[in-house]
Amino acid sequence: MDDALIARLATLRAAAPALQHAANNAVMVVTANLELLSRSAPTEAARRQAGRALDATQRLDATLRAFLALMRATPGEKPVAAPAETIPSVLPLLRAVLGSRTPVEMTLAGADTPVAHDAAAAQVALLALALAVAGKGEAGVPLDIAFLPAEPGLTLRATPPATGGPCVDVVL
Hints:
15% strand; 6 strands; alpha+beta
């Protein structure tokens, strides 16, 4: 990686907490106003419209939170935590990259045991797979993500939707 890219990523990582704070404040104001409007609009059509805008705001909030959390993550950091609590936060990013054409299914069975793992590295691996398979394969065929027992801990397996691509395994 060249020095300019490293410097750019370091700057973005350093700015992520302030960006998250600004985004949280803006989303909170928009959400509060849309909730009020969805309850008090004079017509049912206006209430439904406000409800759809509220849903979109919540999806935007989840996507921004996931992206900024990934930007803030310390590379190589391996805290002890249950993968079922750390890995799913990438789902909004996967859904954004894959679009509505490719659903994402994550099975969390067996992922509730705390293990030392680099959640950000696993999330980036899943994001790279999503980028590789986006727009390929049959519509409606999901990207399957599961946790498998392995030594010493767990393996995260992502199976791409019928694109001919291989499964991606990330040892946690």
